[in-house]
Amino acid sequence: MAPQDRIAQVNKHLNYPGGVLAGQVAIITGAGQGIGAEAARLFANEGAKVIVADIDATKANGVADAINAAEAGRALAVVGDVLDANYINDLVKRAAEFGGGKIHIIVNNAGFTWDAVVHKMTDKQWETMLAVHNTAPFRLVRAAAPYFRVKDKEPRVIINISSTSGIHGNAGQTNYSVAKAGVVGLTKTIAKEWGPAFGVRSNTIAFGYVTTRLTGAKEAGAFITQPDGTKVALGIPGKQLDAKKGSDAKAAEAAAYPDIPLRRPASPEEAARSILGVASPWFSYVNGETIRVTGGRNM
Fold first, then answer.
1. What is the DSSP letter of 98?
2. In Å, what is the CA distance from 251 to each residue of 200, 255, 265, 266?
3. Which of 56, 60, 78, 126 is most deeply packed, by most CB within 10 A?
4. Could you tell me which residues come within 8 angstroms of residue 15 by beta carbon, excluding any fewer than 6 positions away?
5. Taking Cα atoms as reference points, which of 147, 47, 168, 148 lies closest to residue 97?
């Protein structure tokens, strides 16, 4: 039995025949690839209408088209830059229209890294990370406030994606670490302001090592292009795990990650499952928390 079939069977047993997010509308930023794209697919499989927000039109439309191929009208791609305040307002407007006047979930997932050691970090590197990981999520939540500060007794959830770099710090990532630490403060404040009167849940998910373009080999050449044309190289420099076959690959991977008790990084889908879990009614009494998804790293 396929994983989605097992989930559907469990949902039916738990009185969620349409999925645990049936009837809900979700905005997921950075949903054109990686964790965001997997979250969009999982949310749609669980009955949500999903707004695929991403700066890359080709990738965003590809994710939305794949979702809609399974069930028409389930996803909408809204392309733009989260650093553009006008885009944020348009994103909320189009999400509400797509959702019949309602928005239930925001996943602030969009982001990237721009690394340098402290004494070599530029103001632009510093300011860009705070803008992407703090200002953009704040603006999105603020713009969507009219759809969350309501008393219709429907669930409302905000999930801000952080990193263990924001909890422990990380050499070469002062800007990213500070920004990801700031996400926690944003989460807790939303929980305290919007929880009492409106029942809005707000939680942070702090990821450890997940296999995305941010953790791949820098030599692979992945990059982000800034609005001014500046290209930011992504990934970790240096030799990565050699590709091997069979049991040798498992042994090599385990040796490569001795500080992770599960001895491997997470896949994007595994990471996305945690986002689905926090958004679902299974976490209905979890609020203001920072949930670490690390495979046991940094215990």
1. H
2. 44, 6, 14, 16
3. 60
4. none
5. 147
Nearest to 51 by CA among 32, 70, 69, 23: 32
Ordered by where they begin, the domains of the chain are 3-293 (3.40.50.720)
CA distance 235 to 217: 5
Question: Tokens standing for 268?
Answer: 């994007």
Q: What spatial distance separates the first Cα and last Cα of the chain, rounded to whole Å? A: 34
In angstroms, the Cα distances linking 10 to 22, 23, 178 are 15, 18, 40
176: annotated active-site residue: yes
Q: Which of 87, 176, 209, 257 is catalytic?
A: 176
pLDDT digits (tens, 9 = 90+) for 232-289: 767 676 645 444 445 566 666 667 888 888 988 889 999 999 999 999 999 999 999 9
Backbone angles phi, psi at 54, to 5 degrees: -160, 155
Query: What pLDDT digit, counting tens, does each position of 141-195 carry?
Result: 999 999 999 999 999 999 999 999 999 999 999 999 999 999 999 999 999 999 9
C-alpha dihedral sign at 193, 196, 201, 204:
positive
Contacts of 141 (CB under 8 A, 6+ apart): 106, 108, 148, 158, 186, 190
Ramachandran angles phi, psi of 264, nearest 5°: -165, 160
Q: How far is it, in rounded angstroms, from Cα 130 to Cα 188?
A: 18
pLDDT at 239: 46
> Hey, is 236 helix, strand or coil?
strand
How far is Cα 157 from Cα 276, in angstroms, rounded to an integer? 11
> What six digits make up the tokens of 147?
């759809």
Ramachandran angles phi, psi of 107, nearest 5°: -115, 105
Distance, in Å, from the CA atom of 197 to the CA atom of 255, rounded to the nearest integer, reads 50
Q: Is the pTM of this model over 0.90?
A: no
Q: How far is CA 129 from the centre of its chain?
A: 16
Which helix (DSSP H) or strand (DSSP E) does residue 134 occupy?
none
